[in-house]
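Incident log, structure service

09:12 report received: a user says their structure output differs between two submissions of the same chain.
09:20 pulled the input from the user's history:
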Amino acid sequence: MRPSPFALHRAASVGEALALKAEHGDDASFYAGGTELLVALKARVLRYGHLIDIKPLAELRAIEAKEDGTLAIGALCTHHAIATHPLVRKLLPAYAALSADVGNIRVRMAGTIGGVLCFAEPHADAPTLLAALDARVRLSGPEGERTVPSREFHLGEFTTARRDDELLVAIEVPPLGAGNRAAYRCFRHTERPAVGVAAVWKPRAPRCLDLWVGAIGGVPTRMTKSENAAMQLPAALRASEAWERLQPVVEDEARALEASDDLHGSADYKRHLAAVLAQRALEACLA
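09:34 re-ran on a clean worker, output below:
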């Protein structure tokens, strides 16, 4: 099926893109990689009379480290660009690995991190690891810029905290810190994760674990009981010993996760996957 007819506008700056959105209102949408939007337009799930093409905006393709170590990733960076960028591979190897495994080669070459976050399809990889990393989403709108924690950005399936007149311009990830580890593990069926688990382990006092499950519900879910249990582990434990102590807590919490049956599997199957993937992510961090 072909999409309904629309006018294509190519913005030369963020300001021009915002002005075009203000001019055409609800009948317009920003267009970047198009891997999610064009599918929805062709299926007539979405209809817009105007698409605002922001692909020419080089200012949204930058990847740079700030003075405090924060890694800023432009919203138009493709998954391939992130996976192969030296700064990401050095500072956030777990995120580089995630990006290298997203979807298929076409999606990795065209799809953008900003598009994935704004479309808010529940079965996506990026939101889960970004939540565990405590990343921030930077938005630009008519009233200026504002920053939203990634953990608060997704409000439900296909729903985010981004206002309709705002443009996501960058994702900012705070420095992981020396000795800290991050890992993401997922299981896929149709080039999308049936379940994904992200862990960030900070062994130095005060010890901290961030453990998040994604794709199992409308938004990434935090496993707080498992986090609290991990913080009570003795410092000298080997990875296998640490998992032995954490396993009952993780499996118990996984069994209580909210999940629903869909083409990616039954609710019970997804809960089982959450426990298995949590083990793999945690062992990668604890090793």
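09:41 both user submissions now match this output. Likely a transient worker issue. Closing.
09:42 reviewer note: The chain has a mean pLDDT of 93. The longest strand covers residues 193-202.
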